[in-house]
From TrEMBL:
Belongs to the Nth/MutY family. It catalyses: 2'-deoxyribonucleotide-(2'-deoxyribose 5'-phosphate)-2'-deoxyribonucleotide-DNA = a 3'-end 2'-deoxyribonucleotide-(2,3-dehydro-2,3-deoxyribose 5'-phosphate)-DNA + a 5'-end 5'-phospho-2'-deoxyribonucleoside-DNA + H(+). This is Endonuclease III. Gene3D superfamilies: Helix-hairpin-Helix base-excision DNA repair enzymes (C-terminal), Hypothetical protein, domain 2. DNA repair enzyme that has both DNA N-glycosylase activity and AP-lyase activity. The DNA N-glycosylase activity releases various damaged pyrimidines from DNA by cleaving the N-glycosidic bond, leaving an AP (apurinic/apyrimidinic) site. The AP-lyase activity cleaves the phosphodiester bond 3' to the AP site by a beta-elimination, leaving a 3'-terminal unsaturated sugar and a product with a terminal 5'-phosphate. HAMAP family: Nth. Residues 46-194 form the HhH-GPD domain. Signal peptide: none annotated. It comes from the Bacteria. GO terms for molecular function: 4 iron, 4 sulfur cluster binding; class I DNA-(apurinic or apyrimidinic site) endonuclease activity; DNA binding; DNA N-glycosylase activity; metal ion binding. It is an enzyme of class 4 (lyase).
Length: 217
DNA sequence: CTCCCGATAT
DNA sequence: ATATCAGGAG
């Protein structure tokens, strides 16, 4: 089957997809549970290569036990490891949480900074985590969230060829109107989970097939 | 590029 | 059995 839709990456193809996804997922939002910027930062760090559902199963007890950056900075490595174990990569994640929170204590009185330049200086925080915290905690849109789903869906739609998330983000920021930066990534993630799955994409039930050069019907 | 890593879907 | 999950560091 040869793709005959609008050129991948063209404004015609992009606007058609944006409108379709808006209709499909009008209420798309971040699904990790949190009540403060610090909780959001912690949950997002735990979400690396782990489902939201798994993180949400761990954070109620975690947030009840650790109420401030000082709490994470002061706990022992092995104790924190056990508290985050079921999210996988638990040694790295415990080490990252302790280092990030020590940094917050040292530089920001334990608060979470509100610019991307400051956030990406935190140990274990790169563009994806920084963008998530900015948008969902502070309502600030400085970049385009590129996680595993956004990266995969973007490649299949022909928006980027880059595997590297930072390079993909730069290309998406060039292609996508800024007004869509805060909502589109969440909708792409919903679509990536529900339809454009990594292993077995459901192209036959996908309403983007007319705009997707990778569709297999 | 490799490593970290438990839980789940296929 | 194996790929994948709202990644990032060395």
């Amino acid at each position: 089957m040869v793709y005959t839709g609008p050129q991948p990456g063209s404004s015609e193809q992009i606007s058609a997809i944006v409108e379709e996804l808006r209709g499909l997922y009008p209420q798309a939002r971040y699904e990790l549970n949190f009540t403060t910027p610090l909780e959001l930062l912690v949950a997002t760090i735990l979400a690396a290569q782990c489902t939201d559902e798994r993180v949400n199963a761990v954070t109620p007890q975690l947030f009840a036990k650790y109420r401030s950056a000082q709490d994470y900075a002061q706990v022992g490595q092995e104790e924190l490891e056990q508290d985050v174990k079921s999210t996988g990569f638990y040694r790295n994640k415990a080490k990252t949480l302790r280092a990030v929170c020590q940094y917050l204590v040292d530089h920001y009185h334990g608060e979470v900074p509100q610019s991307i330049d400051e956030l990406v200086k935190l140990p274990g925080v790169a563009r994806k985590t920084a963008n998530v915290v900015l948008v969902n905690a502070f309502g600030v849109t400085e970049g385009f969230i590129v996680d595993t789903h956004v990266g995969r869906v973007s490649k299949r739609l022909g928006w980027t060829q880059h595997e590297d998330a930072a390079r993909a983000e730069q290309e998406l920021m060039r292609l996508i109107p800024r007004s869509e930066w805060s909502s589109l990534p969440h909708r792409m993630i919903y679509h990536g989970r529900a339809t454009c799955a990594a292993r077995k994409p459901r192209c036959t039930s996908c309403t983007l097939v007319a705009y997707c050069p990778s569709a297999i019907i």
